[in-house]
Specification:
The protein is 40% helix and 16% strand. The chain contains 15 helices and 10 strands. The protein is globular. Bound molecules: guanosine-5'-triphosphate and magnesium ion. The site of magnesium ion has 4 residues, from α3.
Amino acid sequence: MPKNILDSIRTLPSEVVSQVSSVFSEGTIKIAITGLSRSGKTVFITSLIDQLLHQNRLLSVTHAHATFKTTLKAPLHNVRRFDYYSFIDQLKNEQKWPQGTDAISHTLLEFESKSYFSFMGNKVFTIELIDYPGEWLLDLKMLELSFEDWSLQSLAWLKALNHPEAEKYLQMVASLNAKSVGSVYEKELHETYKSLVTRLKAEHYSQITPGRFIMPADLANDPMLVFAPIGGASSGLVSVYKKRYEKYVDEVVKGIHLEHFKGFERQVVLVDVVESLENGYDCYKDMREGLKSILSLYDHNQKNFLLQWLSPSIKKVLFVATKADQVAASQHANFANLLEEMVGELRRELDISHIETHSQVVSALKSTTTIEKKYEGRLLSFVRGVLEEDGQLHDLYPGEMPAHFPSKTSWSSADYAYKSFLPPKRSYGAQDALEHINMDKVVEKLLGDLL
Ligand SMILES: Nc1nc2c(ncn2[C@@H]2O[C@H](COP(=O)(O)OP(=O)(O)OP(=O)(O)O)[C@@H](O)[C@H]2O)c(=O)[nH]1
Ligand SMILES: [Mg+2]
């Protein structure tokens, strides 16, 4: 702000100053975009920024009267930058999805929004968007657990999976005894557990801790990570593993994962509804539990003082189901129902904690178009797009989405197989944002009150 304006404000009567100073209200609103890996965080944030930068042309106005301008600001020092320019280039010009990202990254957007009254001047504020891997948020439950409790819970979870690889690991743990000590045992058990959770992750299970075993980022090969859940009988390893576990909780979960969550006002939770339908009842249930852990930060019964200290700053949570373009437009009402079913209980719990919630089905980048076609005498809704598997344009009938998640007995994953599409080939003018489904509604629900 120019110095002379500040000086002239200082000489105004106090009641006028309080009015005028709100005009220049500055401040940064922090928004975390979270979700398990591949849920669509990077594409969602890229599209959100792109819609905001091109807002005047492409979004239906958020509030009838709102006019605002958005600028991408220089990145913060000492944090990883969310690389909007590379991502948007890949999506618009190379028809490529961005590679997976395995760490927290930030970006700053400055908004100037027009006020109702010309004498008031415009409101300027900054939004910090943070791409935050949901896998790291799952670790927050470790804050509440001793090494022994975490081990017990993890082993019980593995047992309940009824998975042959999990079974092998459990047998390995059972075979340990007081003499199983030394770095060879330490590493072998850790590596076996790490491969197991990596495999379970690939098979779409969600509740995996610690997050850094599957997304190590800068901690790959850090000796602090050499631990694994074990039972009390194998006491030879307990003391070393316990020390490392406690160091991990202290330095990584508290020191890094939690640190980035300070001062959050809003959170977007991306949910891959299509993926959960495709992977069957057990993965669906596990994803629901995973989402619960991700949001345990706001649990009003939370006893952990660190979490209690963080939660009051959160005011709004928006649940978003991405990739709506994988199904025909006629299926979007059912899609929204499934999202609601997945997060309904969480929304009620957040409501009790006085946190506003919304849900929205979107496609951050609309990669298909819905077309009507006759098939065996029936008019069906097909999706037309370029398939990832062969790079060719296809018309596909993805079937009807159910209005509810099937029950355990009636759920057959084979009924739900959705294809992946590539970003569409089109030429974008300077004024064109990514084509989307419902990103304008996201802007309204997430930011509408600020504009
Ligand atoms: N059809 C369609 N596919 C999408 C959309 N957004 C994301 N995808 C698909 O989902 C994949 C993952 O998207 P990302 O944005 O990279 O997901 P992420 O959550 O950042 O993943 P990680 O960085 O691995 O945690 C992409 O490679 C696409 O295949 C969308 O709007 N439409
Ligand atoms: Mg990503």
